[in-house]
Amino acid sequence: MRWEFGSILPPEVKYNLCEPEILWFNKYSKCLANYMKSIGDNHGLNLTQDSKPPKSLYIEVRCLVDYGKFELDDGESILLKKNSQHLLPRAQCEPLIRQGILQHITQ
User: Fold this and answer.
1) What is the pLDDT of residue 90?
2) N or C, where is the chain less crowded by C-beta within 10 Å?
3) Which residues pair with 43 in a beta bridge?
4) Residue 22 pLDDT grade (very low, low, confident, very high; cuts 50, 70, 90)
5) If one looks up domain 58-104 in CATH, what number appears?
6) Are 102 and 62 in contact (CB under 8 A)?
7) What 3-state DSSP class applies to 70?
8) Taking the CB of residue 80, how many other CB atoms lie within 10 A of it?
9) Is the model's pLDDT at 95 over the cut of 80?
10) CA 81: distance to chain centroid?
């Protein structure tokens, strides 16, 4: 259920669980969160986000807004201007895609 629903169970699911099941779920969720924080070169890695491995570590993205300078993990800075396109590391783009700053360009 942790992998399907996330760290918070929907009320209708939680209502059907007994107290030991809820405690087990909470402990498992905490252990999984601690593990995900510890992997990925100490940057963390959300294993529950996408169950399929990426085909490429880099993706092509289009900037939807004037964002300004964005520093990559390797220290390189790029300027994210509206309608500019970039080939960037997937792991660093995903938060900006979720925020609506970047758009993944699919071929």
Assistant:
1) 85
2) C
3) none
4) very high
5) 3.40.5
6) yes
7) strand
8) 20
9) yes
10) 23
Looking at residue 46, what DSSP letter applies? Answer: -
Joined together, the tokens standing for residue 52 give 């399929």
Cα separation of 73 and 17, whole Å? 43
Q: Which amino acid is at 12?
A: E
Burial class of residue 61, CB neighbours in 10 A (0-12, 13-18, 19+): buried
**What is the phi-psi region of residue 35: left when phi exceeds 0, alpha when psi lies from -120 to 50, beta otherwise?**
alpha
Cβ–Cβ < 8 Å for 3, 48 = yes
Angle at 27 between CA 21 and CA 29, to 5 degrees: 100
How far apart CA 45 and CA 23 sit, in angstroms, is: 24
- Say what the pTM is: 0.50
